[in-house]
Here is the input.
Amino acid sequence: MIKVHTFKICQVVQGREEILFPTLIELNQKKYLVDCGYEETFTEFVRELAKLQVAITDLHAILLSHDDIDHLGALTLFKDQNPNLKIYSSYVEAPAISGELKSERLQQAENSLINLPPEHQEWAKEFIRRLQNIKRTAVDGLLSDNQKIDEEIEVLFTPGHTQGHISFYIASEQLLIANDALVVADQGFDIANPAFTLDLPQAIKSAERIKQLRPRKIICYHGGIVEENVDEKLAALLQKYATSPGA
Here is the structure.
């Protein structure tokens, strides 16, 4: 039997309130955490997991959707408390997550710095510093498209936000854990941070792929759970970008 829990994290990070909706999956006596937040949100993760009667030492693995600071900034803190914790990511993102390659987000931030107006330079430099200081750790399992974890959690490649971004689909629940493939916005869906999405046309194709699954319920890392009129909201998102000049 599979159980899926979504909980809410609220924390001020770099002067801005961040609200995250991570997911915990219980399957075959194993507990999988999907993404693990900022370093600053670690204590709140511990507290919210405790409400589900789960300690960090109870976790079998963290499933990383992609290499962004709000999704893996606290990774080594989890690993320090649970040395047996397994780390899984797409094979595309694993070299950056482990520190073998510079992350796409850091490259993007460094490249865009020169074009930013003066009033945004200081914030951007601090963001770059934070990205550079992410503590890296080895990836134990490389995930491929359509691969199944414990026969129930299907890996769905949804690139665009980053090159190796993945979502997770649980067919028995018609549930899609979108991570940053989608966000909840204006009572519907949108592409996550379109201006900072590394490949917007590809992100739209990923949204199309999600719609083809006809999920009954979608969990977004930014925005939470959507389970009403899911198909119509996905159609509206795709229509928005079909008529948008920049898409």
In short: The first helix runs from residue 42 to 51. Helices lie at 42-51, 69-72, 75-81, 94-97, 104-112, 118-132, 200-213, 230-242. DSSP finds eight helices and 16 strands in the chain.
